[in-house]
Amino acid sequence: MKSLVNIAGAVTLAIWLGLSGSIAKASTPGPIDSDFVLNTSSYNANFGNDSITGSFVDHFTFTTDALMTGSGGLSIISGFGVSGFGLNIPGFEVIFDSFGLWDVTDNANPFLVAPGTLVNGQFAGFSSFPNLTGDHDYDLIVSGDLGAGHSSGAYSGNISIAPIPEPKFYIMLLVGLALVGIAVRRRQNSINQSAYA
Q1: How many domains is the chain partitioned into structurally?
Q2: Does 122 lie in the same domain as 178?
Q3: Structural domain of residue 177, as residue ranges?
Q4: Segment 104-126, tens digit of pLDDT
Q5: Short-list 152, 166, 191, 195, CA closest to 69
Q6: Of the candidates 52, 108, 174, 186, which lies 20 to 30 Å from 16 by C-alpha distance?
Q7: What does the pLDDT look like over 161-175, one tens digit per residue?
Q8: Are 160 and 44 in contact (CB under 8 A)?
Q9: Which among 132, 118, 156 has a CA at the least distance from the CA of 19?
Q10: Does 142 lie in the same domain as 127?
Q11: Is-contact 65 120, C-beta < 8 A?
């Protein structure tokens, strides 16, 4: 029963992802710096590979800027299709071996920032990470192979990084609070003076 629930959830997720959009820009491994878009609450970039024909190790690289230093998360999911060889059996096209986010700023000593967790069946995964470091180089590495019976496949993923406000934001906040405090104090003084007049 548990595996049936996992399969039903995965199929629902695959259909939802398929209907909500496709891989944006980065449909092959490589740099994804230009794919990051600042939404209302985070920097987001899509990545993936739509030309899997066997076992693979894909690298998606990016460099953080001063604002892309917050915490975040990433996720991956296999494409879902009908297998080849005349069998017409629906299933996940890609089975993942591993994925993770590495800080590769020091090529001699790269370190794993966020190891990926694969879902039962290895067709999807997720990970979260603590604050990233500004002006560092990162490499998102995804490895896997084709699912049984598939002659080609695809997968997609998303990485999301919360921005850290610049110091001038905090300065403006403190100045605004000080002005509100001054206005409240002046109003309180004028009320006190009119009560004694």
Answers
A1: 2
A2: no
A3: 169-197
A4: 999 899 999 999 999 877 899 99
A5: 166
A6: 52
A7: 988 665 555 576 677
A8: yes
A9: 156
A10: yes
A11: no
